[in-house]
């Protein structure tokens, strides 16, 4: 097979976040067709979508204002995640709504009459998110709920008199409550003991119940119904995997959700009138962003699979047949080159079974160099989706493995806590046991094993090469944490408390951080290291990269460092992706060959 260059993989465009217009026959979405995420619009009579926003920074959000053709869009500057909200009019005029660039603004939807929007922000205090509403005609902003904590708007009530809001206790625990806008009284409706999460809530027709997903008193998320007056909670559907992405139609008689079966999605429709459940066929991949059309005839969604980069698909609810609606990601040169993984499992040091996706080049003829790719989070999951750099590495002869070590989500509540605080290094040991399993069970070259990861995955990379150095021929850290202790001191204030629930605090766990933090054990590193980081990163400040690089340079260790002045926690701009991924490929070729 002839080797194709890296650029076609990076030039694959993506379409995400579909929203149907409340009036007319249009669907809007975010696509990076120009190299930067912008708003596009597909008129059902047209063959190709039209670009409707032309901003210098990425679009992070797109939602229609109820009953209108106007859109609310979100933008940040240089990837700094301090989202600002704007009104995008039909004529492409943009009106600044929040205009407070030092603060974050999380959108919470428009009122039923389309006159108000709701959002949460840390304007009052950098560490807390309060609830605000804003009039779209007068631009008046009202603070409607304020308390020292993290709050977000879930939805407006059907009568427009209340907001369903959530209090975020940690990444895996929250509460929902009804906030009366006339009195300011907040009535919590999701009382629970122990950790529980409540998400994707939707009001029934009468507005007195909510359908939602929860893992209250369970390992996995199921479908539930809550009476808002009595707070009575009842399960409707349960399974042995997490339910995700719950959406409800306008007539309030159908629900759609997905089932996360080990990182692969299955879509489900529930007819509430008949209690009938049905599914539809999709390729191997992940379904997200479910949206019913206003006429209740269609269900739009994003499909993202290793061989199907993100595009918008649409399910006909009468025939239960799905078709691809956009072809933004279509790249004929790559069609036969994209590789799907196999799902493997291995046993770790304590006999815990760990899942992973293993990708292998087509028709290998020799022992393979392998790249372990570690997800961030850590409350996240490696899933069967398109990844340009991984697909390119497969094309030039590398095997790739993406594990879901202990601490990952998707495998139950207990599993997600197995790496908390003092158990942090247990997850790193999982990677060692994965390598040993691959040596026995797959045709890999023992001298050409590399590890790469971003964000918390970057911490896993650095922890692996400091605590288990003999396994790695090369390592790549992307926006990673080099010291939990310094990270907790410098991460954005509104994130710190939630991160402490996962990592611990330096008052209580500082001595433990000293024992495990890669920054304090750089003398053990034997593998060359490539570090990439965005200068506007508010989650993991660039200091995390700089302090690690400086320590390695002091002892003349092979380390390469690339920073991006116009990026944050993610590399979004096409020119920067080309730079970053080209360097990754060259680095791996240099140290572990083709």
Quick overview of this protein structure:
The protein is α+β, with helices and mostly antiparallel strands. 18% of the residues lie in helices and 37% in strands.
Care to describe what's here?
This protein starts with 6 loop residues before the first helix and ends with a helix. 49% of the residues are buried. A hairpin with a 5-residue loop joins strand 13 and strand 14. The mean pLDDT is 94. The protein has ten helices and 36 strands. By secondary structure, the chain is an alpha+beta fold. Helix 6 (484-490) runs antiparallel to helix 7.
Percentage of residues in strands? 35-45%
Helix content bin: 10-25%
- Low-pLDDT residue spans: none
User: Whole-number average pLDDT?
Assistant: 94
* Gap between N and C termini: 14 Å
Shape: globular
Using only CA atoms, what is the Rg?
Answer: 24 Å
Most strands sheet: 8 strands, mixed
Given the structure, what is the number of helices? 10
> What is the total tally of β strands?
36
Features:
10 helices; 36 strands; globular; 8-stranded mixed beta sheet; alpha+beta; 4-stranded antiparallel beta sheet; 37% strand; 594 residues
How is the secondary structure organized here?
Blueprint (H helix, E strand, L loop, with lengths): L6 H4 L4 E6 L5 E6 L6 E6 L6 E2 L7 E6 L6 E5 L8 E5 L5 E3 L8 E6 L5 E6 L8 E6 L5 E5 L5 E6 L5 E9 L2 E8 L5 E3 L9 E6 L5 E6 L7 E6 L5 E5 L4 E7 L5 E8 L2 E8 L4 E4 L6 E7 L5 E8 L2 E9 L4 E4 L17 E6 L5 E7 L8 E7 L13 H8 L3 E5 L9 H4 L7 H18 L2 E11 L1 H12 L6 E5 L5 H7 L2 H11 L2 H11 L12 E6 L8 H12 L4 E6 L9 H19 L2
Parallel strand pairs: 31-32, 31-33, 33-34, 34-35, 35-36
Antiparallel strand pairs: 1-2, 2-3, 3-4, 5-6, 6-7, 7-8, 9-10, 10-11, 11-12, 13-14, 14-15, 15-16, 17-18, 18-19, 19-20, 21-22, 22-23, 23-24, 25-26, 26-27, 27-28, 29-30, 30-32
């Amino acid at each position: 097979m002839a080797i194709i260059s890296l650029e076609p993989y990076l030039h694959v465009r993506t379409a995400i976040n579909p929203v149907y217009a409340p009036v007319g026959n249009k669907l809007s979405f975010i696509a990076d067709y120009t190299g930067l995420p912008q708003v596009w619009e597909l008129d059902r009579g047209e063959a190709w979508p039209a670009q409707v926003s032309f901003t210098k920074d990425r679009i992070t959000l797109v939602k229609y204002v109820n009953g209108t053709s106007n859109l609310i869009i979100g933008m940040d500057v240089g990837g700094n995640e301090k989202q600002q909200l704007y009104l995008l009019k039909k004529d492409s005029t943009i009106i600044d709504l929040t205009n407070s660039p030092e603060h974050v603004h999380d959108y919470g939807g428009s009122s039923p009459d389309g006159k108000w929007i709701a959002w949460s922000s840390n304007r009052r205090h950098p560490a807390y998110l309060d609830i605000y509403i804003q009039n779209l005609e007068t631009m008046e902003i009202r603070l409607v709920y304020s308390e020292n904590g993290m709050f977000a708007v879930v939805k407006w009530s059907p009568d427009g008199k209340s907001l369903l809001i959530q209090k975020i206790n940690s990444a895996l625990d929250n509460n929902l409550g009804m906030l009366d806008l006339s009195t300011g009284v907040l009535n919590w409706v999701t009382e629970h003991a122990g950790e529980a999460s409540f998400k994707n809530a939707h009001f029934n027709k009468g507005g007195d119940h909510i359908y939602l997903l929860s893992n209250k008193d369970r390992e996995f998320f199921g479908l539930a119904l809550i009476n808002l007056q009595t707070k009575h909670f009842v399960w409707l559907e349960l399974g042995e995997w997490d339910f995700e992405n719950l959406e409800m139609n306008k007539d309030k008689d159908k629900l759609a959700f997905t089932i996360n079966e080990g990182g692969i999605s299955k879509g489900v429709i529930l007819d509430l009138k008949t209690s009938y459940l049905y599914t539809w066929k999709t390729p191997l991949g992940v379904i997200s962003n479910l949206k019913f059309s206003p006429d209740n005839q269609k269900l739009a969604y994003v499909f993202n699979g290793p061989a199907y980069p993100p595009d918008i698909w649409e399910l006909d609810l009468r025939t239960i047949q799905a078709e691809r609606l956009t072809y933004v990601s279509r790249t004929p040169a790559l069609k036969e080159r994209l590789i799907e993984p196999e799902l493997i499992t291995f046993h770790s040091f304590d006999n815990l079974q760990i899942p992973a996706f293993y990708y292998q080049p087509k028709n290998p003829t020799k022992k393979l160099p392998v790249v372990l790719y570690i997800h961030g989070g850590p409350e996240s999951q490696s899933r069967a989706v398109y990844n340009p750099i991984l697909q390119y590495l497969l094309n030039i002869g590398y095997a790739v493995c993406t594990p879901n070590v202990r601490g990952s989500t998707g495998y139950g509540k207990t599993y997600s806590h197995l790496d908390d605080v003092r158990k942090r290094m247990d997850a790193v040991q999982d990677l060692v046991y994965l390598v040993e399993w691959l040596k026995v069970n797959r045709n890999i070259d023992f001298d050409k094993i590399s590890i790469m990861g971003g964000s918390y995955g970057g911490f896993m990379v650095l922890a692996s090469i400091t605590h288990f150095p003999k396994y790695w021929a090369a390592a790549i850290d992307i926006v990673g944490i080099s010291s939990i202790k310094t990270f907790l001191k410098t991460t954005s204030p509104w994130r710190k408390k939630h991160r402490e629930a996962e990592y611990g605090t330096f008052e209580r766990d500082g001595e433990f951080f000293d024992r495990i933090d890669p920054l304090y054990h750089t003398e053990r590193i034997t593998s060359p290291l490539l570090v990439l980081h965005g200068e506007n990163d508010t989650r993991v400040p660039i200091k995390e990269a700089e302090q690690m690089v400086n320590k390695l340079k002091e002892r003349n260790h092979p380390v390469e460092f690339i920073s991006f002045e116009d990026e944050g926690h993610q590399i979004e701009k096409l020119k920067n992706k080309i730079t970053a991924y080209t360097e990754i490929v060259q680095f791996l070729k240099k140290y572990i060959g083709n």
